[in-house]
Amino acid sequence: MGTRVQHALEQLKTSGVRITPQRHAILDFLLESMTHPTADEIYRALEPKFPSMSVATVYNNLKMFMESGMVRELTYGDASSRFDANVSEHYHVICEQCGKIEDFMYPSLKDVEHQAEKATGYHVKGLRLELYGICETCKEH
């Protein structure tokens, strides 16, 4: 088990959340998968291991993770929400064909926030940047 998962579980325990095997598995899957899965994909991946688990269970747990600030919901277009367990500052590159989302970090984007503050007097609290294109897999087909 990765240290990120350990850390996340500790964080949940301190906020008084019971760690069920299902919660553990959902969190694990989210932290390991860099694909920003949908609730459905999480459900399908874990169903063989947890036959009694429903899609509703997955949704409820994701909601709980979001409330504790450990998971971010990504809503792009009208496709299903995808979920991201990386809540640090980063940006997303999205495939217009298959909907896959990849993380991208580019430090000088912080400058954009500072420039915006200077120009408008706003206190900028965050930035959501989306880049669109065609991923390598889709390019080959």
Automatic annotation (TrEMBL):
Where in the cell is the protein located? Cytoplasm
Q: What is this protein called?
A: Peptide ABC transporter substrate-binding protein
Give the co-factor note: Binds 1 zinc ion per subunit.
Q: Which GO terms describe its biological process?
A: negative regulation of DNA-templated transcription; regulation of secondary metabolite biosynthetic process
Sorted keywords for this record are: Cytoplasm, DNA-binding, Manganese, Metal-binding, Repressor, Transcription, Transcription regulation, Zinc
What the entry lists under Pfam families is as follows: FUR
Binding residues for Zn(2+):
C95, C98, C135, C138
| Keyword match Kinase | no
> Which cofactor does this sequence's record say it needs?
Zn(2+)
One MF annotation (Gene Ontology) recorded for this entry: transcription cis-regulatory region binding
Cellular component per GO, a single term: cytoplasm
Protein family according to the UniProt entry:
Belongs to the Fur family.
